Amino acid sequence: MTTRAWSLAYLTTPTLRAAEMLRTAHAIGYGFVGLRIAANLPGTPYQALVDAPAELAELKAVMADTGTGVFDLEIIRIGERFDVTAHLPMLDVGQAIGARAVLVAADDTDTARLADSYARLCEAMAPRGLTADLEFMPWTAVKTAREALAVVRAAGHPSNAGVLVDALHYARSGTTLADIAALPRDLLHYAQACDAPAPPGHRFTDDELVHTARSERLMPGEGGIDLRGLFGALPAGLPVSVEIPHLQRQAALPPIEFARQALAAARAVLDPPA
Hints:
By secondary structure, the protein is of the alpha/beta class. The chain has a single domain (12-239, 253-270), classed as Divalent-metal-dependent TIM barrel enzymes (TIM Barrel, Alpha-Beta Barrel). It is built from 11 helices and 8 strands. The chain has an 8-stranded parallel β-barrel with strand order 1-2-3-4-5-6-7-8, surrounded by 4 helices. Strand 4 (101-106), helix 4 and strand 5 (131-135) form a beta-alpha-beta unit. It is globular, with a radius of gyration of 17 Å. The termini are close together.
């Protein structure tokens, strides 16, 4: 069995506060969590840590008590009016809790401006020990692994640049296993695991893509994504963030039980017993 780090993603237990999520992850056997400490879109939920000293102190205490860490933080979106200084408080929190990575999404369709913004973000993150992991998503300005790599290269391939591979987006973006294998090893810091239906030849609308991504992912092994092929094309032992939002099933189970099932399913598919 491959020894790898497992992280509990925010969307798998989105109702938990940061400290509660860490306790839950520790109880189940995850080594890390991923926290959403900035809203994905205006008005959407997130876990208060920026300008929330009591919450931050509680999180640090739980980290010290359990040994469970924070792997990644969400989310920074790069739009056409991107201002890196607006995100510095988030990056300062990341440094304070020893986070490794920040998930970055691209909304700016001006490729030159996007690359410049991404380079400036990497520059701000570097002294804080954070990587800027650009996630390709087929309804955003960076739709495929090839496009994500092109942004990194146009930005000058900063030392802390990264490309985040999400199994769902790999399967629905036209990205191939050859594209994944071609990603430079230094850009791969972790990947996200889930499953979903993969009907041959089906062209998903943006609404369908977003709905599945945010509301109806399946446990690894329940859908049609070639997860073993995907993770076989990625570096052996790459850390895995288990990201499985499924609103109906999450509502029916306590968060700890849903997170336990998610980890068991991911391990069974990606690191089966010899």
